[in-house]
Amino acid sequence: QTAVDTLKDFVRDVKSGRAEFTQTVTSPDGAKKKTSSGKFEFSRPNRFRFTYLKPFEQVIVADGQKVWIYDADLNQASSRKFSQALGATPAALLAGGSLEKDFDLAAQPAKDGLDWVEATPKAKEGSFKSVRVGFKGKTLSAIEVVDAFNQRSLLQFSQFVANEPIKAETFVFTVPKGADLIEQ
Amino acid sequence: CATVGQKAPPDSATLSGKLSVRVDATATTPSRSESGSFELKGTPEAGQLNLSTPLGTVMAQARWAGNRAWLATSQGETAYPDLDTLTQEMLGESLPVAALFDWLRGRPWPGTASRAVEGGFEQLGWTIDLARFGEGWVAARRAQAPAVLVRAKVDPS
Asked: What is the ipTM of this complex?
């Protein structure tokens, strides 16, 4: 059982899930790290929600067709088609419905106590150098994305709960009154 | 002057935070907007601006040196004769990035005259609102159509 098998089992068996996450973004020169944290929920196919709680409120909601981003501070919402939502790929990897159609998978050596899989998007959209998924045993523990500019974003998950029903409206985004909306 | 609470970061420090740029629609063009977290490094003469998605992926990187400028996105890199033309391409309207270095620090750009107004100042045809600069907020509004609104929340450095 390699991490590739674990990821395939995960995509086949885990239809929905929720977890706490901590996100650490490291700038290309490695000098600056920005951390944020919140809640992640997903339901296959292509529906997920990142609720950022710290250091500021922000949500990213994928409703299956579009990816909505709302920043409470800026009171600005934007929406893009799911396929063009740059940066949706890591979450699409987890919540997507067609893992092997969209990604080439390769097991990697264990590191930081996790078994890792490298997933390379087959569609050459060029925005990622690498997307890696880390498991502790069978439990999803981390996703690390290195983008085309060498900026590194590490999402670490905890308290992962699989296959519990999640309310449908979790994956519906309604633009708050008075918020500025831009449809890209 | 209008800055109270948050003192302006030292000049060479990297400025980072959240930025939203909105360009109103015109008869022929739809409204456009970009927002994300930003990192502004260097000086007006040579520097770099990164715009990233909330998930930490760089959407666009602008670099400039002397009067040459480059814009890199996931689709590749394009060169421009100068920074104004680059921002024109990036946002549909040119953005005075050189002045932004000072505006985001809550002060007029020394490169040209400015006029104090209630809650901020006017410069280069833009009105800079510093009413909430104490919490890191800067809003720059260009009245000339199509109106452009740049709002930034600068991280305390």
From this structure: 0.81
